[in-house]
């Protein structure tokens, strides 16, 4: 999956740390999502979408296989 | 910090003190073990009791709440849970490899009479490997049942 989480976060002037705290996940999780190494669970994807007040498909888009983690 | 932490600290300390007294007052083969238990009990009990009073001081409460929140995030963080699961899988596979290699090594060493208890060690490694395989299969079946 590709996503524009980093762009959205930066547009709101948030650090990874602050964004992670708002989502109640670790900074490493945010970092992994942003650089496309980890695809979040549906629950977290919904939380991210709710945080940015957008729909999931406006943030995440399919890129290939649906595995949770890139090889 | 919860009061139960203080109670746990006191219990550790008392167990350590009891082991210390037993090590000092009796002469047994377990003396060295008792010294070890007393050190572990007294030290960890003291640390837990000190931490309880430190974190319950009014000036440290806010920092403690933050630490608790960070610990909770670290524990339930989905990426880290996923990685812990993967690490467990690798450890399981490694355990299987080590135990199967150990069986062969102990069999050879036993036959060459280089290890006096080679057969026992071989049986132990074999039992351990079977236990791992059976436990892996049983847990998988149980988990699968939950998702059906």
Write up what this structure looks like.
The complex is a heterodimer of chains A (71) and B (148). Chain A has 71 residues and is mainly alpha-helical. In chain A, 54% of the residues lie in helices and 6% in strands. Chain A has five helices and two strands. Chain A is globular and about 30 Å long. In chain A, 24% of the residues are buried. By secondary structure, chain B is mainly α. Chain B is built from five helices and no strands. In chain B, helix 1 packs antiparallel against helix 2 and helix 4 runs antiparallel to helix 5. Chain B starts with a helix and ends with a helix. The chains are: A mainly alpha (71), B mainly alpha (148). Chains A and B meet through helix 3 of A and helix 3 and helix 4 of B.
Task: Give a quick rundown of the structure.
The complex is a heterodimer of chains A (71) and B (148). Chain A has 71 residues and is mainly alpha-helical.
């Amino acid at each position: 999956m590709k996503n524009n989480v980093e762009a959205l976060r930066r547009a709101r002037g948030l650090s990874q740390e602050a964004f992670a705290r708002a989502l109640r996940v670790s900074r490493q999780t945010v970092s992994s999502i942003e650089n496309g190494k980890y695809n979040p669970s549906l629950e977290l994807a919904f939380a991210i979408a709710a945080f940015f007040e957008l729909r999931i498909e406006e943030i995440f888009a399919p890129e290939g296989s649906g595995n949770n983690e890139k090889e | 910090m919860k009061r139960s932490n203080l109670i746990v600290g006191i219990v550790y300390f008392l167990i350590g003190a009891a082991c210390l007294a037993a090590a000092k007052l009796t002469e047994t083969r377990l003396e060295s073990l008792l010294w070890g238990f007393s050190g572990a009990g007294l030290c960890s009990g003291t640390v837990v009791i000190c931490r309880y009073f430190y974190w319950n001081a009014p000036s440290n409460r806010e920092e403690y709440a933050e630490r608790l929140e960070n610990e909770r995030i670290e524990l339930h963080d989905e990426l880290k849970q996923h990685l812990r699961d993967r690490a467990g899988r690798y450890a399981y596979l490694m355990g299987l490899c080590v135990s199967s290699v150990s069986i062969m090594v102990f069999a050879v060493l036993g036959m060459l009479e280089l290890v006096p208890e080679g057969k026992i060690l071989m049986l132990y490694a074999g039992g351990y490997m079977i236990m791992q395989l059976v436990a892996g299969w049983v847990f998988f079946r149980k988990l699968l049942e939950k998702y059906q």
